[in-house]
Amino acid sequence: MCRFKLLLVVGSVLWLAACGSSNNGSTVTAVIATCFPSPIQSSQLITCTATVTGTGVFMSTVNWTTTAGSINASGVFTAPVVTEPLSVTITATSTQNTAVTGTATIIINPVNSQPLTVDAGPQPQTFTAVNEAFTSVTVCVPNSSTCQTVDHVLVDTGSSGLRLLSSVLTIPLPQENDASGNPLDECHIFLDGYAWGPVSLADISVAGEIAASAAVQVMIPDSVSPAVPTTCSSQSIGPNQGNSVTALRANGVIGLGFFQHDCGVTCTTANGSILPVYFDCSTSPCSPTYVTLAQQVPNPVTMFSLDNNGVLMFLPSVPSGGVSTLSGTLIFGIGTQTNNALQSATVYTVPDTGANMGDITTKFNGVSYPSSFIDSGSSGIFFLDNATTGIPTCTVQNSLWYCPIPSTGNLSATNQGTNGNQGVVNFSINNANTLFNTGYSAFSTLGAPLVSAPPPGSFDWGLAFFFGRDVFTAIENMPTPGGPGPYVAY
Amino acid sequence: MNRHVNFLVRMSILLLCGLAILTSPAWAVLGDSAASVLNDQARMKGTLRSVDMKAYVMHEITVPSGSVVREYVSPAGAVFGVAWEGQFPPDLRQLLGPYYEQARQAEQQQERHGRAPISIETPGLVVQQTGHARSFHGQAYVPQLIPQGVKSSDIR
Questions:
Q1: Of the candidates A75, A109, A143, which is a domain's last residue?
Q2: Residue in A238, A255, A460 closest to B133 by CB
Q3: One domain, residues A274 and A179
Q4: What pTM was estimated for this model as a whole?
Q5: Among partner residues A234, A236, A378, which is closest to B115 by beta-carbon distance?
Q6: ipTM, two decimals
Q7: Residues A255 and A397 in one domain
Q8: Cα-based torsion angle of the residue sequence A74, A78, A79, A81 in order, rounded to the nearest 10 degrees
Q9: Pick from A70, A161, A237, A403: CA 20 to 30 A from residue A486's CA?
Q10: Do residue B131 and residue A373 have CB atoms under 8 angstroms apart?
């Protein structure tokens, strides 16, 4: 996955032959300092070398100095911790003649990767999470050292913005105000429920990246004021997922999807009609209000200094019977550092307007389903129905799943982007009941039908699809080596 | 003859819709009368397009956010199905009426295994919603109200 592009940095050389001091007739004429590779990341160690030239029997030793980080007598450089790219100058000074120096420049980039975990979730004694990719997120009261690291935050490429349960937050994040100076609250609709609560401000840290003073939704339960507006809960059949960790099945959700903001221009005055998304709660009950783009909950990635055009999720492949836990990597940026190059991934662009925003077309058995999508926040592969696929179903605790005996064997679908790029997806479905009975948390073969699918019908390629693939999610209007987002690539 | 009667029924429904816009009838929804379509249009501040499909009439309401709601009315004048798509789901409590609570209760009885689309199939009600932020697609219908010769897959 990683392609290291070694960049040789050869420093400038100071020629001082004319005035070089002599030592027993010897003269140091030049020092060339070399450090590679560059760029490197925060805290990374690299060894710099110095080539000293001169006349006679000169001393080839140098003293090392650096403008940031540290470097020892052997030339081993330890990069400083940065949250935005930093250019560091390293100087090798001849010990024989301190007027003769050589310099090298190294670019230090923020650390852009951190672990992803698929495990039983934040409360394994209460429920076993299934196909949820978790990571840790640190939030701080803006411009302060009052911080908290929240574990088991769901990584969701199907939404944009960080949302944390009020019940797990222990630090007081200040609430954001609207244009009138009134505190803002928000209603966010998930696939299977909704979230309600204040829009607060936090410095968000993930990996070595920082989104400073970013809007974050704090999800509150029904029991906490302000009360959920009816126009919020009415947009969903599902529950208030802010009610508990069990309801959310995570401590929070970090939306790293296609869009820069969670609502976009539709929630601004440009729409001409106020939607029940952002609310002014200065009077009771709360009333919907317009917000600017800047006031909306952003995809935090867009606020990073360098790696701000998308994300790469890497999760290893999973055998057909599942595994109990899985470790992977979440990498920020696309083509911004050596560890996130697109390489041979196929780019599938998605619409950023219309009724199928963020969707791809999946073709199955000769039929196209244009409302299909790839979403790390969905657990399994949700597609079509028994009548279309012929795959037997079963009911597990009142929910319908695909339950072939023992497995479907290989199934084949073709995904297509609006750019015309196509790619075949081979997958198989196992008996959901059998999979759940293992007690495991990661299944590549978990699938369920959508009732009455044909037509309309669709494929929701959930986390099961991500196993064994490098999946890039590019953000709208952000340049990448694969063209501007939004797109998904794998 | 039968065809002629059906035509009259359809015309009556359209006329009823026309009258409804002048009066202020009660809010009505899935399973309710055709007049409810106009209420939906008014509540959603949307634009209405109606298409006579012979076996039923499809009323399509486009709301300011760009989302679309389609309501399917039988020759008997009942809204037998609704479908929606767009950046946000519509007000499902209004759109599904008494079936909203039924759907909520059915959803609550489902044990969740990870995060999934909504999929409810009971003898008297079918509801599904899939999608992600900025693209929701859903439908709901009452199987018993679907007119003869109409397939549930027509509700789209």
A1: A109
A2: A255
A3: yes
A4: 0.91
A5: A378
A6: 0.88
A7: no
A8: -160
A9: A237
A10: yes
